[in-house]
Amino acid sequence: MRFQSHAVLALQEAEEAYLVGLFEDTNLCAVHAKRVTIMSKDIQLARRIRGERS
Question: Does 20 score more than 70 pLDDT?
Fold first, then answer.
């Protein structure tokens, strides 16, 4: 399977935007739990709040 270079760049940009948003939400979950370090349960909670499947 072949991809055009601009298609790969578009996918990369979309994925980076998704991950940045997810980590922002994950950090808010950690702060809410009075922690400064994110944990996997924070990611799971952020995804659940967003309505994503695990």
Answer: yes
